[in-house]
Specification:
Blueprint: H1 23-54, H2 62-66, H3 74-90, H4 123-132, H5 143-152, H6 285-294, E1 316-317, H7 324-334, H8 337-351, E2 353-354, H9 360-375, H10 381-394, H11 397-417, H12 423-429, H13 434-447, H14 459-463
Antiparallel strand pairs: 1-2
The protein binds a DNA duplex (15 and 15 nucleotides) through residues 190, 193-194, 203, 205, 355-366, 369, 373, 378-390, 392-393, 404, 407, 411, 422-424, 426-427, 430, 433-436, 438-440, 453-456, 458-460, 463, 491-493, 495, 497.
Length: 505
DNA sequence: ATTCCTTTGAAGCGA
DNA sequence: TCGCTTCAAAGGAAT
């Protein structure tokens, strides 16, 4: 693990960590991105050659099919214009425009040591926290930034890192930049998607339901206990953000993504948050005590999917709750209550699923996915992940180190939260070797000469357009690839579906 | 409805 | 210790 200069000690910010994201670093970031994009491009081009040679029968008009049909721009343009105008007016300059359209506002400042030696948050960390939790009040030291943050908490969503995002029915494949506001967060997001600016470490976003009432309408009472809760869980790291059940306490960054809610999530309450990870990588005392009191040392009982605040922890997934409970309730009326109770118990046991902490790459993916999606027409995660994998390798050591460090803290916090948890638990939980067999079969098939991945030979691949390629989503590359650019590492399984990525670079 | 695909990294497990 | 496997996320596609 590379040692990061997390100290900084400079109240001006951790410059070393901001290289890629500060103003001048934006260029570097662009270069980096362009390099990776260029490399992607090169790969894709070569793939194109190969594919066009070997797969000439592939459909060439599928891209046209995939494209949304031309439609009236009036509403969208008007909306965009008015919103842009509003955003321009309200943009206090806190968040600068990204290098190019389609580049989300992503800043990864010094994650290793967000605290300055004096104990205060470094500006970059503040920015990061602010980014991750736009509504979070991370007290800055400077008056200016304080004011900026204050502005950011103003009721205007345009201020905030806030991705303005409207999804129009049938426009899921829109050129995203058409929706960008001043902050240009290129997200057209399905309601259940996770915005790139949401905390990286959201173990489970599935629970987030846009239909939740706005926070200010929430009764701040624990639904289970009926005991009033503090507005913010004081001991929960924002990196373990509140899962859906928590939306009531803390406005979710995606709050404004759901226009139909119509309820602004502002103003927000301040304070209550702490450092993303407890100082010195430990859960603070109060949290530890809470954990120790609520979490058995070896396993987390089902009801402990609720966190110390009664908030379900994002790492705990309780799928398939749905309406089955009601079914069972009904059936319990007819059948033996005891057997039903037993069944429910077993169900609950099965439902509790503490997910693995995300590794560095997963964190990176989570953050960058939306960006790649915005840059390309790709939507298939498999293809996106290929690109992300390349970009991951294209990252500098320092940049990767940030994610490694983040992942390390993630694991530590996970360990603190679930002392008895083991990855093995999730092994057994799923199908017991099903995939093992499949993979073995697959490998066997590969060894028999079937070298193309199933995906590559699927209908999807046939539908992947060779040409033309969508160009409108990409802007002209602001910078040529850096001279130090080096070819990407060999891919495990090159996939031609990357062709769907834009090649206009 | 479920599984696959695809990526990297962490962790488990058998040899 | 080594090598293999699973699982984290993601969502379209395939089954």
């Amino acid at each position: 693990m590379p040692q990061l200069n997390g100290g900084g000690g400079d109240d001006l910010g951790a410059n070393d960590e901001m290289i890629s994201f500060k103003d001048e670093g934006e260029q570097e970031e662009k270069i980096s991105e362009n390099s990776s994009a260029e490399r992607d491009l090169a790969d894709v081009k070569s793939s194109l050659v190969n594919e066009s040679e070997t797969n000439q029968n592939s459909s060439s008009d599928s891209e046209a099919e995939r494209r949304p049909p031309p439609r009236s721009e009036t509403f969208r343009d008007k909306t965009r214009e008015s919103l842009e105008e509003a955003a321009k007016r309200q943009d206090g300059g806190l968040f600068k425009s990204p290098p190019y359209p389609g580049y989300p506002f992503i800043m990864i400042p010094d994650l290793t040591s967000p605290y300055l030696p004096n104990g205060s948050l470094s500006p970059t960390a503040r920015t990061y926290l602010q980014m991750k939790w736009p509504l979070l009040d991370v007290q800055p030291g400077g008056l200016q930034s304080r004011q900026a943050l204050k502005d950011a908490r103003s009721p205007s969503p345009a201020h905030i890192v806030g991705p303005f995002c409207w999804e129009f029915p049938g426009q899921s494949d829109l050129s995203l930049h058409q929706f960008h506001l001043s902050n240009k967060v290129p997200v057209v997001q399905h309601p259940h998607h996770v915005h790139p600016l949401t905390p990286l470490i959201t173990y489970s976003n599935e629970h987030f339901t846009p239909g939740n009432p706005p926070p200010h309408l929430q009764t701040d009472v624990d639904p289970k206990t009926g005991i009033p809760r503090p507005p913010h869980p004081p001991d929960i790291s924002p990196y373990y953000p509140l899962s859906p059940g928590t939306v009531g306490q803390i406005p979710h960054p995606l709050g404004w993504l759901v226009p139909q809610q119509g309820q602004p999530v502002y103003p927000i309450t301040t304070g209550g948050f702490r450092h993303p990870y407890p100082t010195a990588l430990t859960v603070n005392a109060s949290m530890s005590s809470l954990l120790s009191s609520r979490f058995p040392p070896h396993m987390v009982p089902p009801h402990h999917s609720l966190h110390t605040t009664g908030i379900p922890h994002p790492a705990i997934v309780t799928p398939n709750v749905k309406q089955e409970s009601t079914h069972s309730d009904i059936s319990s009326l007819n059948s033996s209550k005891q057997t039903d109770a037993k069944k429910e118990e077993e169900k609950k046991k099965q439902q509790v699923h503490i997910k693995k902490p995300l590794n560095a790459f997963m964190l990176y993916m989570k953050e960058m996915r939306a960006k790649v999606v915005a840059e390309c027409t790709l939507k298939e995660s498999a293809a996106i992940n290929q690109i992300l994998g390349r970009r991951w390798h294209a990252l500098s050591r320092e940049e990767q180190a940030k994610y490694y460090e983040l992942a390390r803290k993630e694991r530590q916090l996970h360990m603190q939260l679930y002392p008895g948890w083991s990855a093995r638990d999730n092994y057994a939980a799923n199908q017991q070797g099903k995939r093992k067999k499949r993979k073995r079969e697959k490998q066997q098939a590969e060894s028999n000469g079937e070298k193309k991945s199933a995906f590559a030979t699927s209908k999807v691949k046939a539908a992947v357009p060779v040409l033309p390629l969508r160009t409108e989503a990409y802007s002209t590359p602001p910078h040529p690839p850096p001279p130090q650019w080096s070819p990407p590492p060999p891919q495990k399984s090159p996939n031609l579906r990357l062709n769907k990525c834009n090649l206009s670079h």
